[in-house]
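In this section we walk through a basic example: taking a raw amino acid sequence and producing a predicted 3D structure, encoded as discrete structure tokens. The instruction is simple. Fold the sequence below.
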Amino acid sequence: MVFPGTKDEIAAVVRLASEDSVPVMPSGGGTKLHIGAPPGRVGLVVGLRRLDRVIEHEPGDLTVTAEAGTTLGALQTSLGHRGQWLSLDPPWADRATIGGILASNASGPRRHLYGTARDLLLGVTVVMADGSIVRGGGKVVKNVAGYDLPKLFIGSFGTLGIIVEATLKLRPRPDADRLVLARFHHLKDAGRAAQAVMASDLIPSALEIADAEALRIVAADGGGAALLIGVDGIPEQVDWQCAEVGRLLGGLGMIDARMLDGTARDEAWRALGAIGRSGFGDVAAIMKWGLLPTQVAEVLEQAAVIAQTQGLRAALTAHAGVGIATAVLSGADAAGVVTTLGEWRALVLGAGGHALLEWAPLAVKERMAVWDEPGPASRIMTALKQRLDPRGILNPGRFVGGI
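The resulting token sequence is shown next.
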């Protein structure tokens, strides 16, 4: 491992690695290192934690430029002094770095309203596979010149270049921020409630479904299912929306609703994001699914039955408004785990979605593909990889199709 202190030092390290075709794995806070196929070749880990400066903050323009090793938590604290924030909330904010969040396109519940890293990135500085330093985009919101190079590196998992700096759009901090936790007897009821919220005049910042196991972790209260509705903005608007949630869901099978604010709200969101890596014991695997929002509740119910058939436990959550689900599997039966994961993938693909084996022990990854079969876009992706990294040294084999 090597820990450069500047982007020029990173460029020098990558240039030396390129000359000898030594594989390079960028690493920030380590929160996403488990995603992707195991590396085909062992090489050099380039740690970015020393690149942790906020380079420039322009409150009037609502923009910030930060080095890639800056943690999200540190950045939010710095921005908070001027009443602003970066509207991203992936798990492990105290460890997740800006570079890692961009490289993995990580997000959290608030993506329902505020979008993902792709929506917030204005400009980026990247060290390419030959050691050259390339800049794309700019430092202003209205920037439309040329090919949108920054977006190319979002979600590329470090296979095209090492992100060393980023310029991002900011928002003013909301005056009020609450979480409504509405409980239901069944997942299908929570799913129906989520559809009602999306069809209403409500503008939630987050809309999450949690099954009984997930609810037990988030609220220490198992049984049934829950819809977690985040609401933020000016106090009068938040008050109206919270009251409207109760009125709207009261006739849709809601058992009860709790209003969470301050520390209780933050702890609930943290627990939801940590499901699988800290809140659910004896974790065997974690899968991420992409589905149509209208299919989420039904697929989660079927997935729970599949796990139970194999004698395993499952904790299931989803961003109900965008159709991204997280399925955490618990149990010691390796054969049952692999069988369940295979049936889960078949279920999701049959619904027209996609599945990613986000975390699993190596023994499971050896028997179960991490990514779905690459589609027609793999030809373009492979061509880009060959053009930008002809020696194949950046995270070789980690991404879709062995890229």
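Looking at the output, two observations stand out. Residues 7-172 form a domain with the Uridine Diphospho-n-acetylenolpyruvylglucosamine Reductase; domain 3 fold (CATH 3.30.465.10). The first helix runs from residue 7 to 19. In the next section we compare this with other chains.
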